[in-house]
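3.2 Worked example (two chains)
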Amino acid sequence: MLDAIANKDKTKLGGDDIIWPAINEDGSPCSKPIKKPRGLFVTDEPSEREDLESGGDDMRKYWDFIKAKYSSPSFDASMAQQISLLPKHWTVVTINVTDDKTALIVSRQRPDHPPVIFCLPLDRRGREGDDEEQFSYDDALEEFTSIIETSDRITHEGVNIEGNKKAIADWWSERTALDQRMRELLDNIEFCWLGVFKTALAVPNVHGPDTLSLLRSRLDKAFKRSGIGSDKASARPKLDKGLLDCFSSISPKCRDEELEDLAYFILDLYQLHGTSIALSDVDIDTLVVDIRNALEEHTLKTVPRPSQMEDHHMFLVLDKNAQRIPWESIPVLRGRSVSRIPSISFLVDRIQLARHRQGLPFVSPDSKSEIQQVDRISVDPKRVRYVLNPKGDLKHTEKQFGPWLKRMKKEAGWSGTIGTVPTEEEMARSLSRSDLFM
């Protein structure tokens, strides 16, 4: 990050990275401005660096602020509170796959809510006595790779079947079967890997003042009916607000296996609090029925009914192994507003930049005054670039969107390529000079 910030400094970097910097005879940097060469893909549009520096001292304040943040020699405790700077309707979920590919580490963070972290073994169905074959990380990746390769193949084959009714029917039949394979893969990822803990990815509910404490009480009673726990409150594990907030999204109509997940999770909490439990003596089927009854009672008797948070946005922070999985398409996230980001710090930095551009002061996690929230940025509708059908194998897609893009190019000044592969220079300039890249 510090190197990237240094590259924003004109005194340290002389212009475009594809232009040789000027130097004096002694080898020192030359401050004389360099004329940019005219070429096929070189335009007079300002680059991202020029955009950010066009404000002079104004933008320098932003980069100095970010530089000071990352130059700290030690970890500042306030860094752990960065989540408080996010808008209330944003949630950040981090998903990591352990090095041995046998477990997921899932955490959920929201402003003004305690974080929750789950360690989810991918083979936990075996621990719960399920004899079915386990769905491993390698199994999922192998199936996903096969689906992508098959999709690429039939997409290329579809170019040459126009007019052949039998070939078209066969093509659609194979396409439908491929869609079904993808649906089953995504269902398995959610059910086998996340189980009941998919609620960490659900839209948060807005609760009344006593809703979560009532849910805690009903779950405690469900376990007591199975002879688990003690009458002494001090000996019972207390589900904190973060966990209850997650579990409040569980549907009473969910599958038995998902409620088994919840049962084993709470049983582990009892054991961590010193309660000795022989799992082999626990009637899980009966406990699942009691938990389901508790959830049904909670759903029926909670007044006012919890409502889902409006305008909610989910941010996913994924490690290198989790990045390969299409999380955005699993059932619990399908159709939702979801973005991938490299880290929470990245997200906070973008908020600080948006605040700065709107003339608002920088904020820190320990700010005492009420912060004016910024949850969106402005996009210049004229700074749009696009790439359509670069391989030339999506003729129908090009036919549908091509005329519209050409019209927008003429009317709004958009630019891009249709039916051809963009060069590296075009891609670099599209990414650095556009507010929206499609």
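3.2.1 Second chain
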Amino acid sequence: MIDVIVLTKFLSPLLPYLLKLGDKAAEEAAKKLGADTWEKAKAIWVKLHPKVEAKPSAQEAVQDVAQAPEDEDALAALRLQLKKLFKEDPTLESEVTQLLAEAEASQSRGNINIGGDVKGVSAYDISGGSITQGDIS
């Protein structure tokens, strides 16, 4: 089952651009948010868009979030509409779940270098990497 909270958090800042998909200026602006993130968001939106377009309440929820991506009420309405879409179409849910997992995996890659007078480090959800620790003073 897909986590619609994670999905809405992922899509909400990109919805203004996704709604203008194909517009060169919008695509260039969105790429500044991260090319990989943008490509994953587009792939998810290509799956969702036909279902959203077919349902006026889902269209309205998407428009509301695009206009106010931080509005908790708008986000809640979008989450509800997404749940309904996924309940009606389990294949869509499965496809979007896979794409969202890929998007999350690509966002969590990177290096973190910590220097200076640091005596402790806390980390969360580390996989496929290495941690070296020690007091080099």
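3.3 Remarks
The mean pLDDT is 82.
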